[in-house]
Design a protein that fits this description.
The structure is a single chain. β2 (67-74), α4 (80-95) and β3 form a beta-alpha-beta unit. The protein is globular, with a radius of gyration of 16 Å. It is of the alpha/beta class. It has helices spanning 5-13, 34-41, 53-63, 80-95, 148-160, 164-169, and strands at residues 18-23, 67-74, 98-104, 118-121, 125-131, 137-142, 162-163. Strands 6-5-4-1-2-3-7 form a 7-stranded mixed beta sheet, sandwiched between helices.
Length: 174
């Protein structure tokens, strides 16, 4: 089954404990970000990013004891999109309770080589994220099988990554 619109939004609204994501790509081409990403690439100033429905939901759910998190697998030098995402979104998302972690595989083997992007809800429901090579989303597909491999991927990703703020403090330029 493919997810879109209200069915996709409901996945986030109805979590009982956790929504968690593995991101593996150096770029995601999201239509809603196109103008701001272009401005960033051109070095033009961006208006402050202080509010979004995503931030509202993460903040509310965090206050309710629910978790939202992700691990993004990266290599240096960071792509223009990752520099944009780090500065535009990750900094403020962490402040509202999003547990963002970075798994830098620049100088080591990727412990999740071949694993594709996915979201996991409440450690049991998995949605596979399908993308073109350039990072354009194709679709979202509900995974109908056993979630155990995805739980293992999550454990590995968390164990092998560092919190976003720690990664940035280590001197990574973006």
């Amino acid at each position: 089954m493919f997810l879109d619109g209200e069915a996709w939004s409901r996945r986030f609204d109805e979590i009982e404990e956790e929504a968690w994501r593995l991101e593996t790509l150096p770029q995601y081409l999201v239509p809603q970000e196109a103008r701001e990403f272009a401005a960033f690439r051109e070095g033009r100033p961006l208006p402050p990013y202080t509010h979004s429905s995503y931030m509202d939901r993460v903040s509310r759910q965090h206050a309710e004891g629910k978790r939202t998190g992700r691990v993004h697998i990266v290599t240096r030098p960071l792509s223009a999109y990752l520099r944009f995402e780090f500065s535009r979104y990750y900094e403020v998302h962490v402040q509202v309770g999003d547990d963002i972690r970075i798994l830098d595989v620049t100088d080591r083997a990727n412990p999740l080589e071949g694993v594709r992007d996915f979201w996991m809800f409440d450690r049991r429901d998995v949605v596979l994220m399908h993308y073109e090579e350039d990072g354009t989303q194709i679709n979202r597909e509900v995974f109908e099988g056993d979630a155990s491999p995805f739980l293992a991927y999550q454990r590995i990703a968390i164990a092998e990554s560092v919190p976003f703020e720690e990664y940035v403090k280590a001197g990574v330029q973006y």
